[in-house]
Amino acid sequence: MDTGTARRTGGVAKAAAPGRQERGRGVLEGAFALLDALRRNGDEAGVTELALACGVPKGSVHRLLDQLVGVGAVERKGNRYRVGPQLYRLGQAWEPHPGLRPAARLPLQRLRAVTGASVVLAVLREDMAITVSSVPGDLEPLLPVRDGIAFRLDTAAGKALRGPLRGGPVLDREDVMEGVCCAALPVRTPDGRTVAALAGMVPAGRGLDALARAVAEAGAAVTRALGRGVRQAPAPTTALVP
Fold first, then answer.
1. What is the spatial distance between Cα 174 and Cα 185, in angstroms, rounded to a whole number?
2. pLDDT of the residue at 20
3. CB neighbours of 202 closer than 8 A, spacing ≥ 6?
4. Per-residue pLDDT tens for 68-92?
5. Mind listing the pLDDT tens digit for each residue in 139-154?
6. From CA 156, how far away is CA 232, in angstroms rounded?
7. CA-closest candidate to residue 106, choices 233, 196, 195
8. What is the mean pLDDT of the chain?
9. In degrees to the nearest 10, what's the CA dihedral of 237, 217, 156, 231?
10. 27 - beta bridge partners?
11. Which end of the chain offers a freer environment for a tag, N or C, measured as fewer CB atoms within 10 Å?
12. How far apart are the C-alpha atoms of 187 and 184, rounded to whole Å?
């Protein structure tokens, strides 16, 4: 220990007390549990609802919410709470693969415009598929698509993330949800690595072959954009629904 450190600490090197570390970790875990409960709720929730969802006393929930409101992670409206803008800004900084979301933005919009499908781009995280970009389509509000939704790998997009055995599209004809059909394909980097899956979902009864071709074209556009990083033309404004 140098002399400067010794003067500042009175000659004794001080370490953080284990109890304080445990309390700090417990506060962080509680805060993230509340944020996740708000995310799962999808809109607004009150203290009682959040306490029940997290298994945390109401007094602790109220204190944590006040702190989260103070840093902009949560917004308060009367006695109701919802996820705040600061958390959204932090979430936008996450990139599952360098440049993936910017590269996918316009291809996803074009795919929605041409097919009318609800479109999602998903990545693999901890045995789940997580939506990192989405464009609502004709299935709203039957099947809302939103960024940040996690779903199982037995869906078409989940299977595409793991890699189709025959290399073609994964088709779902109401296998997961009645009234909903889907076509999904892997999204690859220029060197062939699978980094995401692109899926288009349409109402049952609509042809999947044309949708699968459009999904493949959109996925190829993402791959090209990842390779060269150039600006893309504006998305079309008219839909040609197969």
1. 17
2. 46
3. 115, 116, 117, 118, 137, 138, 139, 180, 181, 182, 208, 211
4. 998 888 999 988 998 888 776 666 6
5. 998 888 988 888 889 9
6. 28
7. 233
8. 82
9. -70
10. none
11. N
12. 10
pLDDT in tens, 185-227: 999 999 989 999 999 999 999 989 999 999 999 999 999 999 9
Residue corresponding to tokens 């989940």: 158
Contacts (Cβ under 8 Å, ≥6 apart) of 47: 58, 61, 62, 65, 79, 81
**How far is 65 from 219, CA to CA, in rounded Å?**
41
Written as one letter, the residue type at 45 is A
Residue type, 205: G
DSSP the chain: --HHHHHHHTTS-----HHHHHHHHHHHHHHHHHHHHHHHH-S-B-HHHHHHHHT--HHHHHHHHHHHHHTTSEEEETTEEEE-HHHHHHHHT--SSTTHHHHHHHHHHHHHHHH--EEEEEEEETTEEEEEEEE--TTTTTS---TT-EE-TTSHHHHHHH--TTSS-EEEESSSSTTEEEEEEEEE-TTS-EEEEEEEEEETTS-HHHHHHHHHHHHHHHHHHHHH----PPPPSS----
**Which residue is it, tokens 């349409």?**
202
Higher pLDDT, 237 or 77: 77
Looking at residue 7, its amino acid is: R
Summarize pLDDT for 172-181 with one digit per residue, the tens: 999 999 999 9
Q: Which two tokens stand for residue 142?
A: 């039957």
Residue type (1 letter), 238: T
Q: Which residue has the tokens 């609502």?
A: 136
